[in-house]
Amino acid sequence: MEIRRPASRWAGGPALRRVAVVASTLVALTACSQPGDVAAPTDAPAEHSAPELAHVHGLGVDPADGDLYAASHFGVFRIPADGEPEQIADRSQDTMGFTIIGPDHFLGSGHPDPAETDQPPHLGLIESTDAGQTWRPLSLAGEADFHALEAAHDQVYGYDSQTRQIMVSQDKTTWDRRAQLALADFAVSPDDPDTLLATTQEGPARSADGGRTFSPIAGAPLLVLLDWPATDRLVGAAPDGTVHTSTDGGAGWTSQGQVPGQPEAITTHGTNEVYVATDSGIYRSTDIGRTFSLLQPLT
């Protein structure tokens, strides 16, 4: 893929152990600028050319129809069970943070389509209630660039790449700024709104106070991506594509299968499905990550 690859999500953190192992993965995890830069995607496909799905930032399954959606550097795409990916609304919005919170109900963040010159470079928190056909700003337009978003316990949790802070909102409008740290991804416990796990350069870290402070989890594998769909099902992806699962909230981990390439996004669906996007394709598992098959190659 010939696209911008600025410094990683973990940039700005201390030089920590195993950094060399994850350096290439960090570069692949973000297509966005660092704080202070103007970051509308300047390398969008040429005018009149067919948009291609590449550099996926987020994945989610829409409960309205069961379809998989991919948020990417070149817009949000629907991934049908058969056929080619469909770019939603012909919009090449660089959608960074992305989560599906209900039928046809998406939250996102990132940078506008280059054609939308009236938009700020950082979209803040945006919302779609028609499966990505249209988006409306909710808060922090021109300020925040969320690289990770989670909706749980009637709250929205985000990681703002501009300030490198965990932020939490109960109304999608006003925000409480919490810990400042270098992370690649985070997940919220399905049982406790105050329990968060984050992937850092030193390995997974846990917060028991709603993201205000974090402490490392001893013995956990180095991970870059997380999804926590159920009490007894926490799924993570390592820099080398190995998928790990935990049944006890991250205290203990079991290695499962491996996907080729550098992991860029992860989601789960139902009790057994795991989807992982890498720099080369989107892969699907129907056995909680033990084996994977290629669902969609990426350019």
Output the CATH topology.
Answer: Methylamine Dehydrogenase, Chain H
Give the N-to-C terminal Cα separation: 6 Å
Number of domains: 1
In CATH, the homologous superfamily goes by the name: YVTN repeat-like/Quinoprotein amine dehydrogenase
What structural class do helix, strand and pairing data support? Answer: mainly beta
- Biggest beta sheet attributes: 4 strands, antiparallel
* Residues in helices, as a percent range: under 10%
Q: For the record, what CATH class applies?
A: Mainly Beta
Number of strands: 24
Short descriptors:
WD40/YVTN_repeat-like_dom_sf; single chain; Glycosyl_F510_1955-like; 4-stranded antiparallel β-sheet; BNR/Asp-box repeat protein; disordered N terminus; 24 strands; Methylamine Dehydrogenase, Chain H; about 300 residues; mainly beta
Description:
The protein is mostly beta strands and 299 residues long. It has a single domain (19-42, 53-297), classed as Methylamine Dehydrogenase, Chain H (7 Propeller), CATH 2.130.10. Helix content is 3%, strand content 42%. It is built from one helix and 24 strands. The protein has one helix spanning 19-28, and strands at 56-61, 68-72, 75-79, 86-87, 94-102, 105-111, 125-128, 136-139, 146-152, 155-160, 165-169, 176-180, 185-188, 196-200, 203-207, 215-216, 225-230, 233-237, 242-246, 254-258, 263-269, 273-278, 281-285, 293-297. Strands 1-2-3-4 form a four-stranded antiparallel sheet, with no helix packed on it. Strands 5-6-7-8 form a four-stranded antiparallel sheet, with no helix packed on it. It has a four-stranded antiparallel sheet with strand order 9-10-11-12, with no helix packed on it. A hairpin with a 6-residue loop joins strand 11 and strand 12 (176-180). The longest helix is centred in the first third of the chain and has 10 residues, at 19-28. Residues 1-9, 11-42 and 44-48 have low confidence and may be disordered.
